[in-house]
Design goal:
The complex is a heterodimer of chains A (556) and B (588). With 556 residues, chain A is mainly alpha-helical. In chain A, 61% of the residues lie in helices and 6% in strands. In chain A, helix 2 packs across helix 18, helix 11 packs across helix 19 and helix 14 runs antiparallel to helix 15. Chain B is mainly alpha-helical. Chain B is elongated and about 95 Å long. Classes of the chains: A mainly alpha (556), B mainly alpha (588).
Chain lengths: 556, 588
């Protein structure tokens, strides 16, 4: 009789080949953790140092959320007194840098950079705390490599430093590595698990699709180990608790805030999301071709090394799902690629050390113990790589210092912080400083967050409207002109567009902005429908034009 | 019982494969632009023209070689029609292409079946192979309106080779350790399957297909390299596979036409055709894809990811999936490198995804899931579990076939031209396709200049009018414009000083001379970058001497079956050749 059910293919062929839970000497583990931990912390501290010398540097999206947090602390209600499309957690998590800024009278961009770098270091320390539990197994070596990859990637992030996707990755990585140990049935203490879970919960709640990305590694491990027990673990409960608390908090929000978010902001972005969408192949090949090729490479290597470890497979699954989210989102924006790139770096780092097994060391009498060899590789790479990295940092810094044009921070109200770099200041800062004073209201009617952000933060001017950026207007114009929209919906969105223009009118009359920046394309023609400039801005004259943006100054 | 299960999969594979051919027969008059381009080249070659010298062509010549039987067949089918020898009837061409591609598919499928049967593996391995063949059948079904494109033919001709290798890797990969358990072995060499002639033939087919694109050869190399490393890590012996040797040899041989190519043609190829093409990829030629509206094949990326994630979870138990994942990743890379975003570039990934899903279903059916289910629910005996498997397989196949068929129908009806196209915006707009019959006399040739291959093809073929002159694709114009836009100097594209200027002069002179000699009845020039380039070089001025402008015609289509095309600028200026007396009057 032929073999019965359950016959094929299933039991793992060579259990010994799996290095994840192979026994490993504790003293060697300590050396590996020390080396990898030191290198990772050094990389992150070097990153922090770079930001420290750029105290005014912050990019537009990040600037917006920090500013919203500042306004929140002033009592402003999100989606009523300040509009954006993101769920409120993106604002809440930026409260800390604002408080730091107030406490130390430091520029907000600097506090933001310190905060994000601090988060990176905290994440790294939690990983090290978690890995102490895995000291008796081979998992410690592989997870250490992933940690180095994580730290390496973080210190190269510039434009997306502190973006929601970046914060998600920072907060999620300890959880990912903890889950790796959990699925190998390695006992991890309750407190590090809870810490990792709480941190990851915050990151995961930032955007709904982050959950999808976090599910991919779990599916891989579930299929590989075929056990459900790891789903009931302190870190999972902690994540669930954070998400539930976040969801419950909506009940306690002011009713106007909820109505504005769910009945105004969400429908507009849902209907008009296409406005930002560019073709998938353009998104994939225009800027990110190398990253997608690296994704394919890391997937191939992960498959080759599947018998040795599940970690590269799980991280690659995470990268793949992040790539799906990137493709789904439909833009070539770099922030959407962060998770893919961080996943690639981490999995290639792990695969790099696993490829050690291919070295023909046995012929020379070495390589009897794979894990010891790999440990030696990690330690040596940490020492040599660390030295080389420090050297390169010095060379880059020297070069940067030679070319640096200093910017006296006294101009933006921080004399005690000495000099910053002129390149860090937005080109519109000088103009804003020239035509306005501290505390003046400024209005940016532009189709993106820039240049309103970081100008408002760098000059510490007040936003003169509930619309911190003008994205909503072109989206509404796009929706109203959209073929195939039902008559009812067209009327509805026409009403919304009129409402936005009325709110702009009301805000200008009430807050009397000193300067109004209007982007020529597309804002001028969007506003031309109602002859906005002549009818609503009679008291303003055009003083300048820069980069396709007209600047109007109030006649006082 | 196990044999019954294998038989069921065999029948399912045969049924799905037959369905794929039958379903395609319903839409056999569809022909993708890329296939039309290759058929046009084959047709010209059969008329005695030399590629690169007498007409522009930027693909390996094995592709026109592959299309020659299509041309012969189309000529047979066209016999007696009103069309001149210079053009083929579009319908005949499409039917001929369908027949040729389907014959290749049948040959490939039959070879794969032969290999699976000849491999004489145990029941479990056989079943795995049959499930992979089921994936082959689904892959053939999922080619949709890109049926017959280079990647499809490559997948078909690579498959016998792939099945040879899969069978070989399976032989010592699985051994029976107890009555109820079969596991991957740790050592043992892969073995030869079939006769030497079979292996040579499979190598020949795959090697020939690998020459359809310079990147295709990396697909079998990636699969072999991945398996080599994996087996080495698993402590299994790697032996030399002669079919791989033959694949490499025949792939090299397929390029040997370069040695006997006409000297002028060779000079054209090396001097500017390849450099322009390569530079366009390097510079991420924007004209190849639309910024806002390439065909949306995101569905493939999603399915590919799901298949990959499941495969990651089980690949350590089922090493059979390894080469399939390698194929999938290679397909994904090809899609990236192709940059067009068209369905024809993602076919290999679709093929591998179908195979991966099929093998994963096999894993599900053979896994302890069913066993545990029957243990947990005693009323489900093993016998019923087998019935459940059979019903599950039939249901899954039916759902998959219906979904694929429905998806294609939906894509065909998802004709965005209707919603956003010229007729929706203003019914008085002229469709580009309509401009040719409107302004062309019988026997006139036509010329479309837009800096891309599409939508010139299949429009040229559908209008059934001869293409005027050398440029059957006008990609070189946008490639040059792209180089100029990037302010690249000659040395930056690896060429001697003065190359860019000389190349530009050469291709514009050629275009000018084509207009003078061929006297196309209608010239359509795409607005924007292409138009500006022609205007600067005086071509538009030259056209206006003999032609009358008729304003704009529009082409706006996003994902419409075989007309799938990346929109970039869809406004075409239409010029109609003045009548002889009109010209004389002008001259006087």
């Amino acid at each position: 009789m032929a073999p019965a059910a359950g016959e094929g293919i299933e039991p793992q062929a060579n259990a010994n080949a799996n290095l994840d839970n192979q026994p490993f000497a504790v003293d060697l583990s300590n050396v590996v953790l020390l080396a990898a931990g030191s290198l990772s912390l050094m990389l992150l501290i070097a990153g922090l140092r770079w930001w420290w010398f750029h105290p005014m540097l912050i990019f537009c999206d990040q600037g917006l959320f920090v500013h919203m947090a500042e306004l929140l602390l002033e009592g402003k209600v999100p989606y009523v007194d300040m509009f954006d499309v993101n769920p409120p957690l993106a604002i809440y998590i930026q409260v800390l840098p604002v408080l730091l800024s107030r406490l130390f009278h430091a520029p907000i961009p600097l506090c933001f950079s310190v905060y994000v770098s601090g988060l990176e270091i905290l994440s790294c320390l939690i990983v090290l705390w978690i890995l102490l539990a895995a000291r008796r197994t081979g998992a410690v070596i592989l997870a250490s490599c992933a940690l180095i990859g994580f730290a390496y990637f973080n210190q190269v992030v510039r434009m997306d430093f502190g973006q929601r996707e970046h914060i998600f990755c920072i907060t999620y990585v300890p959880f990912l590595l903890l889950r790796y140990l959990r699925w190998q049935n390695i006992e991890v203490g309750r407190w590090p698990a809870i810490a990792a879970g709480l941190l990851a919960g915050i990151g995961l709640a930032l955007k709904p699709h982050f959950m999808l990305m976090a599910c991919a590694p779990e599916v891989v491990w579930l299929l590989r180990s075929r056990q459900f027990k790891p789903f009931v673990a302190p870190e999972v409960l902690a994540v669930v608790a954070v998400v539930v608390i976040y969801l419950v908090h909506f009940i306690f929000l002011p009713i106007q805030e909820l109505q504005a978010f769910f009945n105004f902001v969400v429908p507009i972005y849902k209907e008009g999301y296409e406005y930002y969408v560019t073709s998938p192949i353009f998104n994939m090949t225009s800027f990110w071709r190398i990253d997608f090729l690296l994704l394919a490479l890391s997937a191939l290597l992960a498959v080759v090394l599947a018998r040795s470890s599940s970690l590269p497979l799980a991280i690659t699954a995470f990268s793949f799902m992040s790539a799906v989210v990137f493709v789904l989102a439909g833009q070539a924006w770099s922030c959407h690629m962060i998770a893919v790139r961080i996943g690639n770096t981490m999995s290639l780092a792990v695969e790099g050390v696993l490829l050690y097994q291919l070295l023909p060391l046995k012929q020379f009498g070495f390589g009897r113990s794979k894990l010891s060899g790999m440990a030696a590789v990690v330690v040596l790479a940490s020492i040599i790589g660390g030295g080389m990295y420090l050297n390169s940092v010095k060379i880059v810094e020297d070069e940067e210092l030679r070319n640096r044009v200093p910017y006296a921070l006294v101009q933006v109200g921080y004399p005690e912080w000495g000099m910053g770099a002129a390149d860090d200041m937005d080109p519109f800062v000088a103009l804003t400083l020239e035509h306005s004073s501290k505390g003046d209201g400024i209005l940016f009617i532009c189709a993106s967050m820039a240049p309103g952000y970081p100008v408002l933060l760098q000059t510490e001017r007040k936003p003169a409207s509930r619309f911190l950026h003008g994205m909503m207007l072109p989206i509404l114009s796009f929706i109203v002109d959209k073929p195939g929209l039902s008559l009812k919906n067209r009327e509805r969105f026409k009403g919304y567009k009129q409402q936005v223009i009325d709110w702009y009118t009301e805000d200008i009359a009430k807050n009397k902005p000193k300067l109004i920046f209007i982007q020529d394309n597309p804002m001028s023609w969007v506003l031309a429908d109602v002859d906005f400039i002549n009818t609503r801005m009679a008291n303003y004259k055009r003083v300048d034009e820069k980069g396709g943006i007209s600047i109007y100054k109030r006649n006082d | 019982m196990t044999k019954n299960r294998t038989l069921l999969v065999t029948l399912a594979a045969l049924a799905v494969f037959t369905a794929s051919i039958v379903y395609r027969a319903v839409f056999c008059t569809d022909l993708s632009g890329a296939v039309c381009y290759e058929i046009e080249a084959a047709h010209r070659m059969l008329q005695g023209q030399i590629p690169f010298r007498d007409f522009y062509f930027d693909l390996p010549l094995t592709l026109p070689l592959l299309r020659m039987p299509t041309v012969w067949l189309a000529q047979l089918l066209t016999t007696g029609s009103h069309l001149s020898a210079a053009v083929l009837s579009f319908k005949a061409m499409a039917i001929a292409s369908f027949i040729e591609v389907s014959l290749i598919a049948v040959l490939s499928f039959a070879l794969c079946i032969h290999i699976v049967v000849a491999s004489k593996r145990d029941d479990n391995s056989q079943r795995l192979l049959w499930f992979a063949l089921l994936g082959f059948a689904f892959g053939n079904f999922a080619m949709g309106y890109s049926y017959g494109c280079a990647q499809h033919i490559f997948a078909l001709l690579l498959s016998p080779y792939l099945f040879l290798r899969l069978s070989a890797w399976l032989q010592t990969g699985l051994v029976k350790t107890s009555d109820a358990e079969i596991v991957d072995t740790e050592s043992g060499a892969d073995s030869k399957i079939g006769s030497v002639w079979l292996r040579i033939f499979c190598g020949l087919l795959a090697g020939f297909a690998a020459s359809f694109d310079p990147l295709f050869i990396f697909v079998p190399i990636t699969i072999e390299a991945l398996e080599f490393l994996s087996r080495r890590l698993d402590g299994k012996a790697n032996t030399f596979a002669d079919e791989f040797f033959w694949l490499l040899m025949f792939s090299l041989l397929s390029w040997s036409y370069l040695l006997v190519l006409d000297k002028v043609a060779m000079a054209e190829l090396v001097d500017w055709i390849i450099p322009l093409k390569y530079t366009s990829y390097y510079l991420e030629q924007m004209a190849y894809f639309g910024l806002g509206a390439t065909p949306d094949r995101r569905d493939v990326i999603y399915l590919c990811t799901i298949a990959a994630i499941i495969a990651f979870g089980i690949v350590n138990r089922l090493s059979f999936l390894r080469p399939i994942i390698a194929l999938m990743m290679a397909g994904f890379v090809l899609y990236q490198m192709g940059m067009s975003g068209l369905s024809s570039d993602i076919l290999l990934a679709i093929w591998a995804t179908c195979m991966a899903f099929s093998v994963e279903i096999c894993y599900l059916f053979d896994s302890s899931f069913f066993v545990n289910l029957s243990r947990r629910y005693p009323k489900l005996s093993y016998r019923r579990a087998n019935k459940a498997r059979a019903v599950g397989l039939i249901a899954l196949c039916a759902v998959a076939v219906i979904s694929l068929a429905a998806l294609e129908v939906i894509q065909r009806h998802d004709n965005l031209t209707v919603w956003y196209g010229p007729m929706a915006i203003d019914p008085t707009y002229l469709e580009l396709a309509d401009s040719f019959p409107k302004y062309c006399c019988s026997g006139d040739s036509i010329m479309i200049i837009n800096g891309r291959l599409l939508p010139n093809f299949p429009l040229y073929s559908m209008t059934e009018k001869p293409i005027a002159g050398y440029f059957i694709s006008t990609e070189p114009f946008s490639s040059l414009a792209n180089i100029e836009a990037h302010n690249l100097a000659d040395h930056m594209v690896g060429k001697p000083f003065g190359w860019i200027v000389a190349t530009k002069k050469k291709i514009f002179d050629r275009l000018r001379s084509d207009i003078d000699k061929e006297k196309p009845g209608v010239i359509a020039v795409e607005g924007g970058q292409t138009f500006e380039g022609l205007e600067k070089s005086g071509i538009i001025g030259r056209i206006l001497v003999d032609y009358t402008g008729h304003g704009e015609a529009r082409y706006h289509s996003r994902c419409v079956g075989a007309k799938e095309f990346a929109d970039w600028n869809y406004r075409y200026n239409i010029y109609e050749r003045k009548k002889a007396d009109e010209n004389e009057a002008n001259t006087k």
